[in-house]
């Protein structure tokens, strides 16, 4: 038989009382997470420092390549018999030796000192024009043809040793070579040109002026515009000295007389 509805079992009533007490423990207050007691959490461990980047070692810097040695220079008073040359030749040699002291390098394709250097035929072109010989062509084979057509070229067939063919060589003559480098289909294959200076007064060694990228100056390979040793190539090499020529239009015959020079 069921119990009356107003009668409660004691354990159930006790549970209800406890629940009501929890819900209404304080007026207007509801039990939520914010009312819960704070929980103390441990502080987070510090982050490890970022890994150090490996220190790059500086690569050793190669020392700068030294500039190739320039050819020597000379004073006109150091040339044997300079005063015995014609006035025109003296002017030419003076202008050449002035260029030799400017520190110009060998520069292919250049005929102007303001470019910092010149090549062999460019040096001859600039030098001769500077003393009024404006008919000179620009290229070495053209300069050879210019001298040949003027009838001044003297061929040399001897090698290594001076022969009778050099009897007419004098300061101010153009000097011509073949085979110093590949000139392609150029015919005749003239590849190099310089000017004969004469002999050095102190030791009698023969000298020439021009531009080169490795000829000997004072016995040492040199690069640039200046004074070089005049030596014939050996028979074993590819280059060949083919001859020399008084410069067309340059006077070689108005040298002062011996009496005038001695005054």
Describe this structure in words.
With 263 residues, the chain is α+β, with helices and mostly antiparallel strands. The protein has a domain at 76-248: endopeptidase domain like (from Nostoc punctiforme) (endopeptidase fold (from Nostoc punctiforme), Alpha-Beta Complex), CATH 3.90.1720. The chain contains 5 helices and 8 strands. The protein has helices at residues 10-23, 87-100, 120-130, 140-149, 258-262, and strands at residues 105-106, 117-118, 154-155, 173-178, 190-199, 206-217, 220-229, 240-246. A hairpin with a 2-residue loop joins strand 6 and strand 7 (220-229). The chain is elongated, with a radius of gyration of 49 Å. The model is unreliable at 3-13, 16-26 and 257-263 (pLDDT under 50).
Major sheet attributes: 6 strands, antiparallel
Overall pLDDT confidence: 84
Question: What oligomeric state do these chains adopt?
Answer: single chain
**Regarding CATH, which class of the domain at 76-248?**
Alpha Beta
The largest sheet has its strands arranged as: 3-8-4-5-6-7
**What portion of residues is helical?**
10-25%
CATH homologous superfamily descriptor of the domain at 76-248: endopeptidase domain like (from Nostoc punctiforme)
- The best one-word shape is elongated
User: What's the total count of β strands?
Assistant: 8
End-to-end CA span: 171 Å
Low-pLDDT ranges: 3-13, 16-26, 257-263
């Amino acid at each position: 038989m069921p119990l009356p509805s107003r009668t409660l079992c004691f354990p159930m009533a006790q549970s209800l009382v406890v629940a009501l007490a929890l819900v209404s423990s304080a007026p207007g207050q509801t039990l939520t997470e914010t009312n819960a007691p704070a929980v103390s959490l441990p502080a987070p461990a510090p982050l490890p420092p970022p890994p150090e980047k490996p220190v790059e070692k500086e690569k050793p810097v190669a020392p700068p390549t030294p500039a190739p040695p320039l050819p020597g220079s000379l004073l006109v008073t150091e040339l044997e018999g300079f005063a015995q040359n014609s006035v025109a030749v003296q002017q030419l040699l003076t202008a050449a030796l002035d260029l030799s002291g400017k520190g110009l390098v060998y520069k292919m394709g250049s005929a102007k000192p303001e470019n910092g250097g010149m090549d062999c035929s460019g040096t001859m072109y600039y030098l001769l024009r500077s003393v009024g010989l404006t008919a000179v062509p620009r290229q070495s084979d053209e300069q050879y043809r210019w001298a040949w057509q003027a009838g001044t070229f003297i061929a040399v067939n001897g090698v290594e040793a001076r022969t009778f063919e050099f009897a007419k060589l004098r300061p101010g003559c153009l000097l011509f070579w073949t085979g110093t480098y590949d000139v392609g289909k150029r015919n005749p294959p003239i590849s190099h040109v310089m000017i004969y200076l004469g002999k050095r007064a102190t030791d009698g060694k023969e000298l020439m002026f021009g531009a080169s990228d490795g000829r000997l100056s004072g016995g040492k390979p040199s690069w640039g515009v200046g004074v070089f040793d005049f030596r014939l190539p050996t028979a074993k090499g590819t280059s060949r000295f083919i001859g020399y020529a008084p410069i067309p239009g340059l006077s070689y015959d108005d040298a002062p007389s011996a009496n005038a020079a001695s005054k």
